[in-house]
Amino acid sequence: MRTQGFIDFEPGNDWMSGPEIAYSNYDLGAHRLQFRAAYLTSRLEQVFRLNILKQDYFLFSPTWHFNRNGFFDPILQADLGYTRYDTEYAWYQGVDNSSWLAALQLGFALNLFQGEYGLYYHFGYNFITPESSNVYPGVFGLGLWVML
Amino acid sequence: MNGTVGIRPKTAGKRAGALISALALLALGACEINTPQCDLECQKGFWMDSGQNPDHCSETTDSTCLVSRRFPAPGDSVKGKHVIIAVHGFTASTYEWQEFKNFAEGDTANGHGKVLVSLVLLGGHGVSLDAFQSSGWKDWGAPLIAEYDSLKSRGFTNISFACASTGCALLMQYISDGVLDTGMAPKWVYMIDPIVVPSAKLLSLVDLVGPILGNSPNPGSNEENRHWYVNRPQEDLKQLYQLTNRVKNELETGFKLPKKTECKVYKSKKDRSADPIGALLIYKGMRKWDGSHIEAELYDSRLHVMTRLAGRDPTPSHADSTLQIGIFREMIKKDLTLP
After folding, report:
1. Mean pLDDT lowest for which of B119-123, B174-178, B260-264, B268-272?
2. Roughly how many angstroms between the first and final C-alpha of chain A, as a whole number?
3. Does A11 touch chain B (CB under 8 A)?
């Protein structure tokens, strides 16, 4: 489960939340390289807050773990993907409502119960921020995982 | 064991490197790479930044800008006229609405002379860079409410607002705060390229980047430099982001216009200052008193705030002129249609 927001030092934020699936094995950089794929969306929140945009994120995030076997595991993560939002109304058509994404994030994972469960936090910079998009440069994410 | 001993100096080296990088960043922050500048053109008094070329509406003796000053004791025939309070945007001046004023008040042949346009100069704007730098968004908005109250106290009964860009963010903040709910409500609110989400997304990191950059100058044509601040100090950019972020949060929560007030948003599809998403957020978040949607329109243009075409480089196209006149006509027609 991953949730991601923007860094802007001001109250209020746009949150995208959703499922994330990750894969790694011992042949991938001695288990240090992990591939993650996530679908993040504001649609859950939009059920309760009708006025926010309906936005989706599709992310592929290769992640490097520096201390895979330790409790505190620093990570470096790239986010490559695509985002879009619903234009919703007939009058709001013809606007560029999508964008590619490319971000680099630093953070750490906390491995609990020998890696059976864990938490992670990361923050970084998104390099693609078009004029017409709800995409900002400062990003941060929080996650919670369970090993399958 | 040997390996552990071998790693320690490297780790210490990395920590020292990180510390040096952090100190360098702090030093850069203290330096302000781009301090506000006034070049030769500016020093000669051609730029608004210089303080030698203020907006004529900033003079307390001027009676051509504010309708409340033009008609301090209006008769019944004047009181019945429709007044549109025109509010300009960030770093701009009343010049942004001068073409609308000329059109609305000058074209008596088409009956447009029934409308008076009150040009409001935002606080901290149109005077000097020092005045701008020392002002906040609450100062910017104060004159528009002052003019509204002044017109009401003089007996004007048909008052509307027309705003551009940041002027609209200020107006929406007042609407969500309920400032316009007391007494007579405005008839119409016309929004031209309202800014809720800035197109330059780096503005969201102004607290971090601002102290390093210090200033983000935005020079335009000679004409624009006379009527807009060229320098945009970090203090003002912070204020702008605070305001837009606040309005965005209010829109996401939702609020209503005053009773019987109508609103239309006009937004260009490509805009280097105000992201079109702002128009969508306004449409979703700011409803009429009865809960219904306001009016909104997107049009094909790359201009930010097409109310001003003069002095642009490159020269606006014929389509831009046609669009501008079309929107001016519609605004006046709408204003005169309501009783």
Report:
1. B268-272
2. 13
3. yes
Which of B205, B296, B298 is the closest to A137 by Cβ? B205
- Gap between the Cα atoms of B95 and B85, Å rounded: 14
Q: DSSP secondary-structure letter at A35?
A: E
Contacts of B242 in chain A (CB under 8 A): 10
ipTM of predicted complex: 0.93
Q: What CA–CA distance (Å, rounded) separates B233 from B312?
A: 23
- Grouping H, G, I as helix, E, B as strand and the rest as coil, residue A74 is strand
Identify residue A110 by its one-letter amino acid code: L
* Correct CATH for A2-146 of 2.40.160.20, 3.40.640.10, 3.40.50.620, 3.30.1300.10: 2.40.160.20
Q: How many CB pairs under 8 A join A and B?
A: 90
What secondary structure letter does DSSP report for A89? S
**B interface mutation test: which of A46, A88, A91 has the most B CBs within 10 A?**
A91
- For A92-146, the DSSP string reads S-SS--EEEEEEEEEEEEEEETTTTEEEEEEEEEES---SSSS--SEEEEEEEEE
Q: B245 and A10 in contact by Cβ < 8 A?
A: yes
Structural domains in chain B? 36-337 (3.40.50.1820)
Q: What are the b/e assignments for B284-299, b being 16+ CB within 10 Å? A: bbbbbeeeeebebebb
Cis status, amide bond into B314, omega within 30 of 0: yes
Residue B274 is classified by DSSP as: B
Q: Is A102 on the interface with B (CB under 8 A)?
A: no
- Interface probe for B, chosen from A6, A7, A10, A89 (most Cβ of B below 10 Å), is A10
- How do residues B157-210 score in pLDDT, each as one tens digit? 999 999 999 999 999 999 999 999 888 899 999 999 999 999 999 999 999 888
